[in-house]
Amino acid sequence: MLEDVKFVGGHGTMRKGQYVPWAGYGDQTRKPQPVPGPDPAWDTQYWSLWVTNEGGGIFKNIWTASSYACSGIYVSNTSTVGKIYAMSVEHHVRNEVRFNKVSNWKIYALQLEEESREGVYCQPMEISNCSNLMFANLYMFRVIRFKTPYPYSIRTWDCKNVELLNVHNYSQIKYTTDNPLYDINTNTEVRPSELARIFISGKVPLNSSQTPTGQVMTLARGFEFAEGMCSDSKGNIYFSEQRLKRIYKWSAATASLDLLADYPWEPLSLGCDSEDNLLVVFKYFPQFGHKINGVQESFRNPPDASGTSFSMWGNSGFATLTYSIDPDNPDETLEPLKRTKMGSLPVVHKALHPSNRWRDFHDFDKVTVNRNEECWLAPDGKTIIPICYDLARSSGLVEAFPGKQVYVSNEYDKRTVKLDVDDNGYVTNMQRFAEKGEFFSIPAANGDVYIADGDLFVFNHEGKLKGTIHIPERPNAISFGGKGKETLFVTGREALYSVAISQQPAFKVLVLTERGGQHEGFVKPAIDWLEEYSRAENFEITVINTTDKIDEAYLSDFKVFIQLDYIPYAWPEKAMKAFVRYIEEGRGGWVGFHHATLLGEFDGYPMWPWFSDFMGGIRFKNYIAQKASGKVILEDGTHPVMKGVSESFVLHNDEWYTFDKSPRPNVRVLATVDESSYDPPSDIRMGDHPVVWVNEKVKARNVYFLMGHDGSLFHSKDFTTMFSNAIKWASGE
């Protein structure tokens, strides 16, 4: 039993007689920099009384009123029976009382009192993930000196069987607390100020049911500038309130929100490493009397602070420090990250860079690509946060994966830029992406980019505006999360929102190819390119290396059939019949390469006459075995496949197949090769030598490319333009 205890600090003393102010309370001389305002020592200590890990017992006649603590009592992680009698919890800056994962407690005559000087924004009580609690004669009070109201006296989160009896929500003035209770995840407000009984059953449906794609849903409200958002591999979402020093978690498993942590430091932004440790960038002010080697602790602005006026006018003298947290045990796992040299790690999984930078001295382009000397290293040993001043101003962190691209907002110029990420996590090759940008920009799995700038703007991977999603308030931070990460979460000034985003593929593409043979040098980079391009253009590829699966039912799932250097013989009968109907009836589109015209008698198989006719009535004749470069001449620039293709361009190291005759009489030729341009020269020629053509005598959109032997083709912008155009056109898009 704990009885008759006063937690001193800020208000009152144990002395009899005339009132004597608490030593140091509000004393401006004790500050590192004497300026008017709150005492910097307020809200810099942990909870005055912490009962946790199956703690319990009786707590009686206790006054806990230290403004230096982040709250007066915190009870967590216990099902042991506990009872509180006559406890007064007062004068805290952010929170008086918090219960988290507690059951089997009874609380009698609990008084909460907020003082006007330090408690203007104090949330009196938080109750989360609790069951079987009873509060009797609960008194919640704001002193007469307040000049502003407060929205809620109690916030509850995912509780059941919680009973509150004789609830008194009170102030002598009109600026009282508006509502005695708000249940976050059901969006339920209890408004009467005097109540005989409130009972939380836990059976009310959560405010997170599915909404149609594209519609914005309000999940929770009552926050102050919610920002710093990130997600982990499970789809859980995290965000923070900087000034109120709170970190929240939205669970993908339960579709509900919880107050994860309320440390006595300001969380600036959040991230996750590859092992789902939560990384928190904190703002830390030096504490009066804390000395290092006998010298008062202090911090100077780094050199890269000079390009932003944010570093002036009072935004100096603090440190930006980074810690890790186990989200399953946040109270006991806060650990500082180690600093290490940039470029010293054998492998970097990802780097976390500021999502936005305010550089009103117009040095954004320079500072963003700075070669930072040091970084914070996450517990997984391969996630880093490059150390820079702009972490102090950013509303979040963006994930920069080596070998991919990342998007960063130029907040001052209202612009979003795109950058490459190298193996060490540095960003390079800055390109302007969109003339929108404020706090956050993130890519979707389909290659679209979402930019928060007053509203939510959706751009395709080329920076072209696709649409706008109207958010009820100005968005601060965005992140994909939830099951399958198909939901976009948005924080605003006051609330958390979700938008169901359709990331289903627009269409499916079948890629038939052979692996490991003489064309592997082309096939492998082709598949790599297709995988990246399909993500950017939101279509799905399926790669097969045999025709055994092909029948009408199998092909019905695909809008495009790419025959990637696969022979036109040795197909099963059912596959041949299904393919013929697919082409002749226009059930899908076809894109063929190189080896698809190996028409004749090969490997003991006869020529497929239908396929020969499909290709213009040709038969394979010869090829340049030693390979050669050749100039391709654009013949029909009006066709969609040739949109954006140069009038002539050179392709290297190809075999330049020849046939017994030109297919021209039976097809529409789009491009030819200039045989006189071969390097080295070759006598293997056919005169009129088409290399790209379409057969307009069948219903299916189809195009054949004669080239397709060497991976260097993917270094040619003209070749990849033709390839991408062909897929779009063949799909009917």
Description:
- By secondary structure, the protein is mainly β.
- It folds into three domains: 2-200, Single-stranded right-handed beta-helix, Pectin lyase-like (Pectate Lyase C-like, 3 Solenoid); 216-500, Neuraminidase; 508-731, Class I glutamine amidotransferase (GATase) domain (Rossmann fold, 3-Layer(aba) Sandwich).
- Helices cover 8% and strands 42% of the residues.
- Strands 1, 2, 3, 4, 5, 6, 7, 8, 9, 10, 11, 12 and 13 form a 13-stranded mixed β-sheet that branches.
- It is elongated.
| CATH C-level class of the largest domain | Mainly Beta
Assembly category: single chain
CATH architecture of the largest domain: 6 Propeller
Strand content: 35-45%
| Rg over CA atoms | 33 Å
| Arithmetic mean pLDDT | 91
Described by the principal axes of the CA atoms, the overall outline is: elongated
Work out the number of β strands.
Answer: 51
Low-confidence stretches: 24-35
Helix content: under 10%
Number of alpha- plus pi-helical segments: 6
Classify the secondary structure makeup into a structural class. Answer: mainly beta
CATH domain topology of the largest domain: Neuraminidase
